[in-house]
């Protein structure tokens, strides 16, 4: 099982945005979790 969340470089200040450490500023949207099973 794999849990995925979308990431974006356009932070909007939503409460469920999680900052990612990278060379460019980006956030993961923790309220849009997708589960993949293969």
Automatic annotation (TrEMBL):
Xref: Gene3D superfamilies: 2.30.30.110
Q: Which domain of life is it from?
A: Bacteria
Q: Which InterPro entries match?
A: Plasmid_toxin/cell-grow_inhib
Stated name of the protein = Toxin domain protein
* The organism of origin for this protein: Candidatus Erwinia dacicola
Taxonomic classification: Bacteria, Pseudomonadati, Pseudomonadota, Gammaproteobacteria, Enterobacterales
């Amino acid at each position: 099982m794999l849990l995925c969340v979308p990431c974006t470089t356009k932070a909007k200040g939503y409460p469920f945005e999680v900052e990612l450490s990278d060379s460019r500023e980006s956030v993961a949207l923790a309220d849009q979790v997708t589960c993949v099973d293969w």
